[in-house]
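Continuing from the previous page...

OK, I double-checked the sequence for DNA polymerase IV against my notes and this is the correct one:
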Amino acid sequence: MTVNALPRGFCRDCLAPAETDAKRCRACGSPRVLRHPELDALSLAHIDCDAFYAAVEKRDNPELRDKPVIIGGGKRGVVSTACYIARINGVRSAMPMFKALEACPTAVVVKPDMEKYVRVGRQVRDMMQALTPMVEPISIDEAFLDLAGTRKLHGASPALVLARFARQVEQEVGITVSVGLSYCKFLAKVASDRDKPRGFSVIGQAEAVSFLAQQPVTLIWGVGKAFAATLAGDGLRSIGQLQTLERGELMRRYGTMGDRLYHLSRGLDERSVKPRSEAKSVSSETTFDTDLSRFEDLVPVLRALSERVSARLKKADIAGRTIVLKLKTADFRIRTRNRQLGDPTRLADRIFHTGLDMLRRETDGTRYRLLGIGVSDLTDAGKADPPDLVDQLSHKRALAEGAIDSLREKFGRQAVETGYTFGRGRAGRPPRED
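Thanks. Re-ran it with the corrected sequence; updated structure tokens here:
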């Protein structure tokens, strides 16, 4: 690049090239002109849907468009996400619902519809995979992408391809995304958070160290409030201060975390984008409107959650060997209990009865606000639930469960209920997860 050359750029709205230093696009007048000296050289991106759950609800209900919206599980739940209007009023994810409503009394609270969000998330994911096979999902609404080597395929630089993608999502899906473009995962994620919503931020290699030097230590993955306080006690509040210390000194002080501090403070991150890996667990949980302590009140909820987990395992054609019970007490303390089975399962009956035995041991008068059940150590379903020579009735129960699944698939989930949930109303049909 010559001394007087302009950084390469384009308009994010009409995608016309930005050939002058004008603040607005000469083709369409948009102020969303993107320029950066390394724009054509970078190919690693992080894409994050903006306030995803709330955005989907606003898309589906235009009356919510200009209102503060909180997605959460009722008064006793927590905030799953909030739109930007609600965030301006102090609402944050994971905030108890009562505090969120104190901060924003005019907010509209919408219970989460996970099935809908998963459908929209998959639609966006499919659009990502049309750009490159190198897509690494982080959650339902965000992923890393590596577009290296795709220029010939798309006839454009990765940056321009990502801008096209963002516009396509907005037009076809009806939500917005923010894009972070850099040379490594760490800084791509940092970039995507810089200019939300509808953002597109670039952090190049030449500016990385100087940019990071001005940032707080909490920008580094793994530096939460507690560790930040430890670093502050040692006089380290900015990443620039970390940059003055050698790797050996940081590791002597903070162990393996010191190694991370050394590398990330200098913008060194060699992790590659890894395409979607298999899920590590399948689970379902619910937060109660009022605390529950009696075993007989918890049983129908456990049964309904076990059926939900089983349905997901069967749909994905997988099974798991370890059953995990999760409980959250009234004072927000989490208890988890695990039990490994002799062979993998995907049957609601086995998941439920294993969880039931663990639950019985925990019903000691403690009041619980949340109950969950899950399956981990996942494997192919072909290895699941072999005939039990000891329990002769297990085969009959498995056949009965298969018949119930067929009826539910044909007539809906409420067509058939077990004795554990029948007639129990909401106790047998927990709300969607928080």
